[in-house]
Amino acid sequence: MKNNYKKIVLLALVFAMAITGLRSQTVTYDLKTNSDTVLNVNSIFGYACTHLELNAKVTHNSDSSVVRVLMTDNHGIERLVFESYPLICSGMTDTLVKVCEETKYMAYGVKAMTLSIYIKDASIELDNIKLTNRLYKNYIQLAEDYKIDVETAKVAQMNQNLEANDFLWRAVLSELVLFDFSTIATYYDSYKANTDGYLYYGGRLFF
After folding, report:
1. pTM
2. Cβ contacts of residue 76 below 8 Å, gap of 6+?
3. Residues 178 and 147: beta-carbon distance below 8 Å
4. Which of 168, 172, 169, 167 minimizes the C-alpha distance to 152?
5. pLDDT of residue 19
6. CA 189/CA 103 separation, integer angstroms
7. Element (H, E) at 141
8. How far is the C-alpha of 172 from the C-alpha of 74, rounded, in Å?
């Protein structure tokens, strides 16, 4: 019975896709800013959005710099498109290509409403965003697997930077950092918080 229900739901989604058609749009921005900014995405792409990615360049001014971009959907859920701070970058300039940390695989009922850019002591040049409504029938597992890949890459870059700068502690892929950003954010005092990698702390002296 349960399998039959899943088949019915999947068929309904496929039927909806057949009616609305596959939609994909790339929106080019001429935006350079060093302050918090909100972009209205729904006015540009009012269809279901199962994938959102962007291309941009971030420049950090200090070790405490941070830039985060969050997508808010039609259910009020905030998803992390990307975050950038010096500890997870190879330099003070971060070139971001097709980034989509929590927006790579989303449910078909999701609509992208806004993009919120949070900036602390940094600047961003936003090139473009791409949105599509491609159907991912196993989007939950795909999203979980992709989250592990993204966080693993962050840990590797952190440890490279920590070693290069003679820090004693090392980063690990902790259970906490695999939670959705909306959960992780409850440990921050703001979306612009830079915790110096503490959530990835894997032992030894933290300095």
Report:
1. 0.87
2. none
3. yes
4. 172
5. 43
6. 23
7. helix 139-164
8. 34
Q: Which helix (H) or strand (E) holds 57?
A: strand 51-60
When pLDDT is cut at 50, 70 and 90, the band that residue 22 belongs to is: confident
- What one-letter code names the amino acid at 171? A
Q: Which tens digits make up the pLDDT trace of 173-187?
A: 999 899 999 999 888
Residue 147 exposure: Cα atoms within 13 Å on the Cβ side: 21
Residues 6 or more apart in contact with residue 123 via CB below 8 angstroms: 32, 33, 34, 58, 59, 61
What is the token pair recorded at 70?
Answer: 């969050």
Question: For residue 82, what are the CA distances in angstroms to 14, 115, 120?
Answer: 30, 11, 15
Q: Name the residue with tokens 């820090």.
A: 167
> In which residue are the tokens 């906490």 written?
176
- What are the tens digits of pLDDT across the range 103-124? 999 999 999 999 999 999 999 9
Given a contact cutoff of 8 angstroms between Cβ atoms, the answer to whether 186 and 179 are in contact is: no
